[in-house]
């Protein structure tokens, strides 16, 4: 984990979540730019998990190792599944589905930042 | 192309996996993942600390998985399973929520349903209510 990168993920996820709500309120399915943005959030999230995995491999040990690993894996599968689910039936609710996944990524990143404390 | 199933009157069959139901399935899916993964880690790494709490969390996770899959399928048979799962879920969160307030010492570690799901912003209490409302809303006559 790199704090600066975590805050980038949090900021991008927040934008994706708000974007999803905005298109839902406008009664539109997510547009191409919005879907690409969600993909970008996913890419940064994957990079974050890879960096964290590399640090774990290099010997870093957080207090709750198993939980941390679970979060690092779980966080990268949310947006791809939400993307497929949102595109299988395209309407205003697609945006909310993407927003829910983005909020989950945001919350999990906040939790990861706390979990990433070295074991005494 | 399979035609959209229609009622004899011509109105589209209301499926639990359509419209707002897709958001409900997404939220259930996240809770299925979160509760099951968390309980599995706890059971594998520190079972002896609070076996009852962790087993209850795992039960909650499994119920969320059933609810997610059955709501996402949206068939007539899966609706029935969804109804059973969500009723168990509602009874579970109300029972464990109340017990955890009255007898906190019985739950040394938090479960998904402790204090009505306070650790997850009370979404665990809201979900079964929304789930039952959605099943009612999409019922066929």
Polypeptide structure, described:
By secondary structure, chain A is mainly α. Chain A contains four helices and no strands. Chain A has helices at residues 3-25, 32-57, 65-88, 92-115. The longest helix of chain A has 26 residues, at 32-57. The chains are: A mainly alpha (120), B mainly alpha (141). The A-B interface holds A 66-67, 70, 74, 77-78, 81-82, 85-86, 89, 91, 93-94, 96-97, 100-101, 104 and B 18-20, 22-23, 25-27, 29-30, 33-34, 37-38, 41, 44-45.
Number of helices of chain A: 4
User: What structural category arises from helix and sheet content of chain A?
Assistant: mainly alpha
Helix content of chain A: over 70%
Biggest β-sheet strands, sense, barrel of chain A: none
Tell me the fraction of residues in β-strands of chain B, as a range. Answer: under 5%
What is the chains' assembly state? heterodimer
Helix/strand order of chain B: HHHH
Low-confidence region ranges of chain A:
none
The chain-level mean pLDDT of chain A equals 96
Estimate the global geometry of chain A from the Cα principal axes.
elongated
Distance between the termini of chain B: 27 Å
Provide a quick synopsis of the model.
With 120 residues, chain A is an all-alpha fold. Chain A is built from 4 helices and no strands.
What topology does this entry show?
The complex is a heterodimer of chains A (120) and B (141).
Chain A: H1 3-25, H2 32-57, H3 65-88, H4 92-115
Chain B: H1 20-46, H2 51-73, H3 76-102, H4 123-137
Helix pairs in contact in B: 1-2, 1-4, 2-3, 3-4
């Amino acid at each position: 984990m790199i704090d600066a990168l975590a805050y980038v993920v949090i900021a991008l996820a927040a934008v994706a979540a708000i974007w999803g709500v905005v298109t839902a309120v406008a009664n539109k399915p997510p547009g191409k730019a919005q879907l690409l943005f969600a993909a970008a959030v996913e890419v940064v999230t994957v990079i974050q998990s890879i960096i964290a995995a590399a640090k774990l491999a290099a010997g870093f040990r957080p207090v709750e190792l198993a939980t941390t690993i679970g979060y690092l894996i779980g966080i990268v599968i949310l947006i791809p599944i939400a993307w497929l689910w949102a595109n299988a039936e395209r309407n205003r609710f697609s945006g909310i589905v993407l927003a829910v996944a983005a909020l989950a990524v945001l919350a999990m990143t906040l939790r990861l930042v706390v979990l990433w404390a070295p074991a005494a | 192309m399979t035609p959209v199933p229609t009622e004899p009157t011509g109105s589209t069959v209301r499926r639990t996996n359509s419209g707002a139901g897709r958001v409900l399935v997404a939220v259930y899916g996240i809770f299925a993942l979160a509760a099951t993964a968390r309980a599995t880690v706890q059971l594998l790494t520190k079972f002896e600390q609070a076996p009852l709490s962790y087993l209850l969390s795992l039960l909650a996770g499994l119920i969320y998985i059933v609810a997610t899959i059955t709501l996402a399928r949206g068939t007539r048979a899966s609706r029935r399973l969804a109804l059973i799962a969500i009723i168990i879920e509602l009874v579970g969160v109300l029972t464990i929520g109340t017990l955890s307030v009255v007898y906190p010492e019985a739950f040394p570690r938090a479960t998904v349903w402790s204090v009505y799901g306070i650790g997850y912003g009370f979404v665990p209490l809201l979900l079964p209510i929304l789930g039952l409302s959605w099943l009612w809303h999409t019922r066929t006559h």
